[in-house]
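Quick note —
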Amino acid sequence: MAAAGLPAIPPNLKAIQHYMKTATEHDKRDPIVAYYCRLYAMQKGMEIDMKSPDCRTFLVTMMDYLEKAKKELYEADAIQSEVVGQAHMENYALKVFLFADNEDRAARFNKNVVKSFYTAGMLFDVLTVFGELSEDIEKNKKYAKWKAAYIHRCLKNGETPIPGPMAEEGEEDLVAGGGSPQPGTSGMSTSGNMENSLYTPSSGSFAPPTTPQDPPQNAYQPPPQNAYQPPPQQPAPTQYNHPVVPNTWTPAPNPAGVQLTTEDFQKAMKFCKYASSALQYEDSKTAVDNLQKALQLLTTGHQS
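Predicted structure written out below.
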């Protein structure tokens, strides 16, 4: 789904349409979530196809759109600081996940629960814009996507889903295509195309998976509490009287005499990253545009 100011998503980039739809749904509800969903979609789109003219036009337009959105959200700490942004997105994704998990454990099965699990899975995907996912978040993501497909399949087949996590490996798991537990069917894996088969954005309803989805081995056991529990505080390390070697290195002064902040350097790095991605697809114009933005920021402390 295209937002205002963006062209229609090219057919070659249909894999990002779910994230674009989620972004549109959050434009008013939570602009920070909308921004990072589109940022993830753009990065994923650049990996898929940036050579064909329609995809290149769409992605370059998306870059400009995100720059404008970033300026509009300039005062938001979650935009200016990646640390704050990651915390915002992780907390929001966990909130959606825990809502779906609580509904599931209470055996309140409906399309809203399916969509909540599915959306949580996509939001966990979006967290990769900040780097590699932690082990817990990765397990949350796999569990959420599997639960969405499993509950949907049960509802479609007129069966009652089993609340909560499935049995441990070696006990009872679900047989492919069915909702009744059967012994001796462990070891089945999830399909990598679950996102493309589960949700149809144009109709706004869930479509059946093309491949039966079964619980992954060692499926994650979601938290029973109604709120995210932070990890326990680690004890302070033992202090040793090691000699302290002073850090005498200092960066070279800015040739233009501009005082740059850490955030300025992070922005310049992002522009260079966009330029590097563009060069991989031999898109010299986009590469030059982003390198010029980085150079302007480093020499003036401002960006146009």
